[in-house]
Design a protein that fits this description.
- It is built from 21 helices and 21 strands.
- By secondary structure, the chain is α/β, with parallel strands linked by helices.
């Protein structure tokens, strides 16, 4: 049997997608679709093998997911089914109704809005932008329809002069008819001929309701009677002519409306192919939106791409289990798994109902989702490659029609695997070799696994056979994996551990099920000694591994706490440094403020001195006042010089003041060395003498290096 090498993933058997539960993913995806076009794409979804197609589909979904997560609005609000209308538009002489033309207009306006949305988001969402790269908005479509159709899908009065005239005449006739009819009603009411309901509407005509005994008195056209025959409905003679004229005008109106609709349809018919593209684009965006919403619901991400057929999953979940467990607030155990050129085949062992098959199905389902362009519930650091074939053998494949036993059907599937598996094949086999004599079945299983390893195929096998568990050390490319089991509680932990085989916990599970102890002991006596010893060894290794993992988790918590304390200390240090820098900046600002205040005060005082000089008789007093002002100026200049000198040679460290460190006075800018630190005071040595000073008037500094000094001086 030769395989058809196409751009689509080859599946074996035909029901592989159902066995891996992809059909349930498809149903979820369908529930998020709003348009028939998007639903059509979901029901015809394909599993591609070309990287460009898969990459574009995934990145488009990821970009739309980012739009959803950012609470943004993408203006793809058109979801009507236009297939019938577009088909009519391609037929010469066809006339679309007003509501149909209105839908065409909405489609065109949606494309206009989408193009505008991309124009105001330049350089963003490149994969989504590809969809509209070659599309232009044709404003004529909107203009042609808007001229004649209102927002309710009705033809406007001014769509043509003739229609405007006809509708004006119709309104006039209706008013005349109403006046005549109301006059008849008043007259009959006065005569006592009217029944309780007074009027009716039969055969498209407005009629008066008259008691049956007066029907020969009221002149007009008889249109019917009530069920009891006590009331008859008559069109009054006075309104017959008006009604006839109204019917004639309404027929003229209908002909003119139809002409306008046909004319408008003919005007937009040349844009048929463009409108088909518009409709297709809206469907594509709705399909991508559905994929993005599904991704958000299951916490799915875009994995990394590989040029090779590999699977490297980090913190991956089965999507259906994720949705089920999160809705019931249950914990979902993630899994890490790798299949590559070195570790090609994973043999998973462990107790029944421990999660072996679920782990296997998770990998298969995520691979199908990936090659269908769906984001996967796994860490974005995960890496996925592309396979050309996917083969599965899960569950009972017995064929009654062909009278094959379960094991015969199993071997038939294995023959297909042997014939067609290659390096680009991903396979899954549940309980390889089961259904036959354990010794012979195990031998066949080992031979099959050797051949799949030789063919470089990648896949997962679940088993209880001990000989398959020991192949990891003998056959290149085969690795072991085990499902964890809590021996104390006798419950599975549903956690996959790579690198070691697992015990089947046959006797532990038997005890949990309540089997008599003497039966269990006898079974242990009858069991193959080497098999029992190896299973017990695996049992002990797993127990030690669990203890080691507990210790690792405890150590990780201690490391995390240490990092937290370290970060807290660094934050405190940063705050102290900022506090010191703030004090220095405040000091510098204070100096500038004092200088500005001083200059303004000097200006005011000198002006006063000049005025005093002109008017004073004792000039000596004026000179003394001027000398005092000049002395104050000299004092400020000296303080500024000291500050400049300190800035030039020393820099604030922002650290705590410690013994032996250098400090700077925030007022006088003097530099000193700390000899003692007290609660509120410091002993600072300046020159050769120690001084007791206030601690809050000093900041820690350090002497600048020569390079720093030269840079500052420049």
């Amino acid at each position: 049997m030769a395989l058809n090498r196409t751009s689509v993933l080859q599946l074996y058997p035909a029901h592989a997608t159902q066995s891996l539960e992809f059909d349930q993913i498809n149903n979820l995806l369908l529930s998020y679709c709003r348009s028939d076009e998007a639903k059509h794409r979901v029901t015809h979804i394909r599993f591609h093998t070309k990287k460009d197609i898969i990459y574009q589909a995934l990145t488009q979904t990821e970009e739309y997911k980012q739009i959803l997560l950012s609470k943004g609005h993408f203006p793809n609000d058109f979801t009507d089914n236009l297939q019938k209308e577009l088909k009519l538009l391609s037929i010469a002489g066809a006339a679309l109704q007003g509501t149909q033309l209105l839908m065409i207009r909405k489609l065109a306006l949606t494309i206009r809005d989408i193009l505008h949305w991309f124009s105001i988001h330049p350089n963003l969402y490149p994969s989504l932008r590809v969809i509209i790269e070659k599309i232009t908005y044709e404003a004529q479509i909107d203009q042609y329809i808007a001229q004649v159709i209102d927002d309710n899908g009705n033809v406007k009065d001014n769509a043509s002069k003739a229609l405007e005239t006809i509708r004006s005449e119709i309104e006039t006739v209706r008013q005349e008819t109403r006046r005549a009819f109301e006059s008849v009603l008043r007259k009959l009411q006065k005569q006592g001929y009217l029944a309780e309901i007074s009027e009716g509407f039969l055969n498209g005509r407005r009629t008066v309701a008259v008691w049956a005994e007066h029907k020969r008195i009221v002149r007009g056209i008889f249109h019917g009677e009530s069920d009891s025959r006590r009331i008859v409905f008559i069109e009054p003679e006075e309104t017959i002519a008006y009604n006839n004229e109204l019917v004639s005008l309404e027929r003229e109106e209908a002909r003119e409306v139809q002409r306008i609709l046909a004319e408008t349809t003919a005007l937009i018919a040349p844009y048929h192919s463009l409108l088909v593209q518009y409709y297709r684009i809206c469907g594509i965006f709705d399909f991508i939106r559905a994929k993005a919403m599904l991704a958000v619901s299951m916490n799915a991400n875009l994995p990394r791409f590989s040029h090779h057929p590999i699977t490297h999953l980090i913190q991956a979940y089965h999507p259906l289990l994720w949705l089920q467990h999160t809705s019931s607030q249950k914990e979902v155990i993630p899994m890490d798994i790798s299949l590559d050129t070195k570790n090609r085949i994973l043999v998973i062992s462990g107790p029944n109902a421990g999660g072996k098959t679920v782990s296997m199905k998770t990998v298969g389902l995520l691979q199908l989702m990936f090659q269908a362009g769906l984001l996967i519930p796994a860490d974005p650091r995960s890496e996925m490659g592309i396979y050309r074939q996917l083969m599965i053998q899960i569950g009972d494949t017995q064929s009654i029609a062909q009278e094959l036993s379960t094991y015969s059907a199993h071997l038939k599937d294995m023959k297909y695997f042997m014939d067609f598996a290659d390096a680009k094949t991903l396979f899954f086999i549940d309980e390889l070799g089961s259904g036959s004599d354990p010794g012979l079945g195990g031998a066949f299983a080992e031979a099959i696994l050797e051949e799949l390893a030789r063919k470089q195929a990648k896949g997962i096998v679940t088993t209880h056979y001990m000989n398959l568990k020991t192949m990891a050390g003998k056959v290149p490319g085969i690795i072991n994996g085990a499902m964890s089991f809590d021996e104390a509680g006798l419950v599975p932990l549903y956690k996959l551990q790579i690198g070691k085989p697992g015990s089947s916990y046959t006797f532990a599970v038997a005890r949990r099920s309540g089997l008599p102890e003497k039966i269990i002991n006898r079974a242990q006596q009858l069991a193959d000694k080497r098999h029992f010893e190896l299973d017990r060894m695996l049992h002990n290794v797993e127990h030690r591994m669990q203890e080691l993992q507990k210790m690792e988790r405890k150590a990780a918590k201690l490391i995390q706490e240490n990092e937290r304390l370290k970060k807290q200390y660094e934050e405190l240090s940063d705050k102290e440094r900022i506090k010191q820098q703030h004090a220095l900046l405040k000091l510098q600002n204070q100096i500038k403020k004092e200088e500005l205040t001083y200059l303004r005060d000097m200006e005011r005082k000198f002006r006063q001195i000049i005025r005093d000089w002109k008017t004073a008789e004792n000039k000596a007093e004026v000179i003394d006042a001027a000398e005092k002002i000049l002395f104050r100026k000299k004092e400020i200049k000296l303080k500024q010089a000291a500050a400049h000198k300190a800035d030039k040679s020393y820099t604030p460290t922002g650290s705590e003041i410690v013994v032996g460190g250098l400090v700077r006075n925030i007022h006088t800018h003097q530099i000193g060395q700390v000899q003692e630190v007290r609660e509120k005071n410091l002993i600072v040595r300046m020159g050769k003498l120690p001084f007791t000073v206030k601690k809050d008037e000093w900041i820690a500094v350090a002497k600048k290096e020569k390079n720093d000094h030269s840079t500052t001086s420049e």
